[in-house]
Amino acid sequence: MYKKTGLTLAALMIAGSVLAACGDGNNNSNSGNTGNTGGDAAGNTATNTAENTGGEAAGNLAADQVFRMNLTSEPPTLDPALMQDNVSGTVANGLFEGLTKADKNGEIVGGMAEKWDVSEDGKTYTFHIRQGSKWSSGNPVTAHDFEFSWKRTLDPKAATPAPYAYQLYYLAGAEEYNTGKGSVDAVGVKAIDDSTLEVKLKNPTTYFLSLQTFYTYFPVDKVAAEKDPNWANEAATFSSNGPFKLAAWKHNDSVELTPNDGYYGKADVKLQKVQFSMIADSNTEFNSFNTGKLDWAGAPTGTIPLPQLAKLRKENSDKLQIKDTANTYFYIFNQSKKPFNNAKVRKALSMAIDRQLLIDRVVSGGQKPAFGFVPPSITGESKSFREETQDAYFKEDVAQAKTLLAEGLKEEGMASFPATTLLFNTSDAHKQIAEAVVDMWKTNLGIEVKPEVQEWKVFLKNRTALNYDIARAGWGADYNDAMTFLDLYVTGGGNNDIGHKNPEYDKLIKDAYASPVQADRVKMMAQAEKILIEDEMAVMPIYYYTSSELVNPKVKDVIMDYAGNINYNNGYFEK
Are residues 405 and 512 in the same domain? Predict the structure, then answer.
């Protein structure tokens, strides 16, 4: 027997919430994220300002409806199967739409699916695709596009493996197929006909409808993708099903979106153009906003210069927005290299820095020191995960850090700390943070670490290939549950770029995936976080993000969600 449902976010249980558009993106120190990315505790997904329900009447719309913001760098890809960052995700959120979407109140509503049915056991979803919606290519959007897309992402023989394929492991048979142990025919997604998609899950998943708003679940145009494997590389061959289409892509310079005439909700799209620039220098971005060349500067993909941010906060600027987001800024260690394979060495490096001093003197955005991995905005059972599981996994202690470093080096047979590089991607903020941390390590531990900057694509490639010693990282929620952070470091995971392996950790994550009881899941995930941080210091938490952005006061209904992701699809300019 099936239950009819058109569930909103509140009905999905506390674990289910709006999905962020990005994971580890080009997150800057005062930005939210991949993407980016936090609502109030206990799952309130209240949106940020630049949102105004008044003044939308046609008579109050400005004649010029061109929204301009900065990406900072070239999107590594616009293919949903290959995305793993909030630069790509920020663009993709206008180009694509999944089975569901979040409205401006953070509620899950129908997207490409007009309605859906859920079986009594919560393991089978039947989605009914909207009639008449078309890709920008002119092809109709069908259930077959979704089946094709999800199986394409899971393909173990894909020329470029999908980094987020594991997000589809909720589907029956998906993990087996992706790891070469099962058949594509056994994957739990099937187009019954053009307008009916049947999805079978491995276990009941309370936030499955929220997952549909994440880019890994976005469909691609089956006809276009089969015709040209490189369809996503250029505007001329690109096909999208969302509110906008890719009008122009000048690589390493700019991206321009215009309305998609085939989109079912085109009447609600008021922006005539969305223009993304790629300004790497934060001062240039800041000046571009001040001279009217940008309507939005800062998070989620840009940066407000730290000195300017401090000044704006002091002045209480009415153009500045700041809010907590579900993101964590941290450093990672290459555990395949000595001495970073040693937990004592990793703990020493983490315990030797002063997080509050770093926030007060360098970052300046009201961030919170992180002594855990999961940020405060993520929900738990009945409160936030952080309220139910305190992040007191370690303390800053220079004397103890010195002892641990000496012991760790001795255990690895090393007489001294080796030449080490701290890798970060292009950003003035990342540079200043790295320089401050390196200085603390030198002062407190007597070691030399060299900061090294790399362009975003190169940085991502080297980090994924474990071609680094220590590197910057940032992670934003893909959905409002601690799992979105903790499943990163399972053995062999698509985003496990530290070489982490721990069978006990893997089992806790697997069991938490399978459990339908949120209280039990929270306990298991808390145990996993303890292993990750307190026992192993597999990653080095630094702070929990805030989102800081400058916004043209005439911009309305452009929304930053709980995870620090921007939604401009229903934005507009008032007179």
Answer: yes
DSSP per-residue string spanning 380-417: -SSSBHHHHS---S----HHHHHHHHHHHHHHTT-SSP
- Asked if residue 213 lies in contact with residue 98, where contact means CB atoms within 8 angstroms, the answer is yes
φ, ψ of residue 43 to 5 degrees: the values are 90, 10
b (16+ CB within 10 A) / e for 562-572: bbbbbbbbbbb
Does residue 210 sit in the same domain as residue 192? yes
Where residue 564 falls among pLDDT bands split at 50, 70, 90?
Answer: confident
Contacts of 405 (CB under 8 A, 6+ apart): 344, 345, 348, 349, 417, 445, 447
CA–CA distance, 418 with 469 (Å, rounded to integer): 10
What CA–CA distance (Å, rounded) separates 183 from 544?
Answer: 41
Q: Are 366 and 283 within one domain?
A: no
Cβ atoms of 265 and 243 within 8 Å: the answer is yes
Residue 286 DSSP SS3: helix
Domain of 405? 324-547
pLDDT over 50 at 33, yes or no: no
For residues 308 and 332, state if they share a domain.
no
Looking at this protein, which amino acid is placed at residue 487? D
Strand 189-193 and strand 320-333: the pairing is unpaired
The radius of gyration of the chain from alpha carbons, rounded to an integer in Å, stands at 23
Partner residues linked to 573 by β-bridges: 555
Work out the angle between the directed axes of helices 306-315 and 428-445 (0-180°, nearest 10): 100
Residue 466, pLDDT > 90, answer yes
The helix (H) or strand (E) run that includes residue 178 is helix 174-178
The Cα 517–Cα 464 span in angstroms is 34
- Name the 3-class secondary structure at 113: strand
d(CA 488, CA 503): 14
Residue 348: strand pairing partners: none
Q: Are residues 75 and 184 in the same domain?
A: no
Integer Cα distance of 559 and 94 in angstroms: 13
Amino acid at 46: A
Picking from 198, 194, 187, 237, the residue whose alpha carbon sits closest to that of residue 79 is 237
**DSSP letter (8 states) at residue 268:** G
- Residue 116 CA to residue 100 CA, distance in Å, equals 10
Q: Are 550 and 295 in contact (CB under 8 A)?
A: no
Biggest alpha carbon–alpha carbon distance for the chain: 75
* Parallel, antiparallel or unpaired: strands 566-567 and 559-560: antiparallel
Two structure tokens written together for 73: 């760098």
Residue 37 in any domain: the answer is no
- Identify whether 537 is part of a domain: yes
CB–CB of 363/538 below 8 Å?
A: no
Question: H/E element holding 297?
Answer: strand 296-298
pLDDT digits (tens, 9 = 90+) for 387-431: 999 899 999 999 999 999 999 999 999 999 999 999 999 988 899
> Is the domain of 144 the same as that of 81?
no
Q: What is the CATH number of the domain that holds 172?
A: 3.90.76.10
- Give the end-to-end CA distance of the chain in Å, rounded to a whole number: 52
Are 328 and 266 part of one and the same domain? no
